[in-house]
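A further point concerns the way the authors explain their paired sequence and structure data. For illustration, here is how one protein appears when written out as sequence plus structure tokens:
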Amino acid sequence: MANEGKSYYTPYRDLGIEVFSAQHIGGARKRRQEDVLFYRAFTKDQPLLQDPQDDSSEYELTILSGMIADGMGGHHRKEKKGFLGIGHVPAATGKTASVIAAHTFRKENPRDFAELYSTAEAINEAIYPLNKSRRLSHSEKIGTTLIEIVLAQRYRNRRFLGYRGYTLNVGNSRELLVRCNGTYDQLTVDEVVTNPKKPSNEIIYNSVGQQPNIVVYTDDNYFQADFNPSDSLLLCSDGITRNQTNEEMTSIILSEKTLPNAGRRLMEQSLRKEPETADNLSLLLVRFY
């Protein structure tokens, strides 16, 4: 893919998962306004098994944390004069918001369900001050959609039970669980409404950074799911979902033997359908052994 940006493939064989991430600028943007981040949640020298206080109880070990931030806004914002009027400070943009989100996520390092919310709050607190310095129109305010995930291994009596994922989603990025039996589940809710002036466009009604506080509800923003070996989990921005159905994405993931090939085909499919108008594309793809 020309100008495909960054892509990473990491097999965590000791954790029983493999991860592929990719980004592309698309055909409609001059720069990427999205950020993807993932990392293992403990170091290699930490023991995989830990003795719970009660051998009969179920317990979890966090193994991976990740996120996608899709920045928005900052349109028509002017540069500000630098110190003593010398030089200029670039205007804040959607890219500013996505970079802040990735940096804050890594700093907060969420490891469980509750910490996903506190991390989203910290991201909101870091971005919002950039919007309240002066009166700004809605298009000038910067913000980001945000999807965060924590993956854990489940155990009982030292016996491995499977994997569990916790997700917080604000905006219209999507999480798709593709089962090895060929079925799929969309785990997240797309927080969008139809634009009455232009029905072909959708309006995102929830984001991080554009309001003093984030708005999340249990049913619409928090999600939990269990995974089995050979299942796949896709997190992606709306640049991919705007022109691919869940059925199409599921078919691609199931038909490719390797995770990188599946991820690249998802990107290529969006670019093929909209070569000149495709939005930024970002995805995080996980497969369980």
Remarks:
- The longest helix spans residues 94-108.
- Helices lie at 94-108, 113-127, 218-221, 238-241, 246-255, 259-273.
